[in-house]
Amino acid sequence: MINIDKITFGYGKDPIFEDFSLQMNGKVTGLIGQNGAGKTTLVNLMIGLLRIKDGSITIDGLSPLKQREELLKRVGVMFEDSDFPQWATIREHLRFIGQLRGMDAAEAERQGLATLERFGITEKADEKFQKLSAGMKQKFGIAQALLGYPNYVILDEPTANLDVNARITALEYIQDLAYTKDMNFVILSHILHDLERVCDEIVVIHKGRLLKQSSMADILKEGMVRDYTVRFTSPEEQEKSLETLQKEGYEVRKRGLALEVHVESRGDLEKIQELINEDISPVRSILEQLFVDLVGGESD
Questions:
Q1: What would the pLDDT profile of 30-79 be if each residue is shown by its tens digit?
Q2: In degrees, to the nearest 5, what angle opens at C-alpha 218 toward C-alphas 216 and 223?
Q3: What tens digit of pLDDT does each residue of 94-137 get?
Q4: Phi/psi of residue 55, nearest 5 degrees
Q5: Model pTM?
Q6: Backbone phi, psi, residue 254, to 5°
Q7: CATH topology for 2-220?
Q8: Does the 226-283 domain belong in CATH 3.30.70.790?
Q9: Residue 45: alpha-carbon gap to chain centroid
Q10: Domain boundaries in the chain?
Q11: What are the angstrom distances between the C-alpha of 267 and each of 43, 69, 176?
């Protein structure tokens, strides 16, 4: 369990966290918030790169300040802007990082390459890091965080720069490891539909405050998207449906050859489908809707 108890941290006189508490118990927890919400700072505090002023943080009972060496053997981390020595190859990186985790170098190489084989890039094992594409570096970042199957893995924007197939592969592998290897994941991402697919717990923070913590099952059960898109093949069909919906009092906006309609209930949704007899699709996922509801229209 990750236990964050009444921590205070800030730069200068401006606190980022003040008397902030959070416990994360999920197998796969999504940590979401706008840029500047404090997500990356919280991760840095969790692994001891930054020091809290007050309060305490433990991961499986280990302090990132008092027992950092032991803790880092149990925690794999992938930062959004991870930078590895450009002159070394993937194979060399895997061996070195594995040894830092207390692994045998050959086993670290074998395990890391097995992960990269899922992404189809094992032929790049002897390529220098500086020659890798952004997507390949991203795949390596995931692989090195998983070395040794640590108790906890913290991934910051793991699916950024990945194509659709690689994203699916990464998300499915995370789910598999969580339950076959009894690993725990904390994922920071702005790609909320990815989190909706893979997470069993969601934590939303905003400006250093905890806004919501809930199981993904409850969010899907209780939540509802309130904006839907209806697409048409002609302006005439669009105009006819626009008039029908507005006559019924619905809030409707034109979006090219589509209409975007706002609903307040599932009953509204059923009625709209009867009125216009067209397929409609949600503008956003349920998790995206929750996020919009919580932070409103505030910008980063």
A1: 999 998 889 999 999 999 999 998 999 999 999 999 998 899 889 999 99
A2: 95
A3: 999 999 888 999 999 999 999 999 998 889 899 998 898 999 99
A4: 90, -165
A5: 0.90
A6: -80, 135
A7: Rossmann fold (3.40.50)
A8: yes
A9: 18
A10: 2-220, 226-283
A11: 42, 56, 38
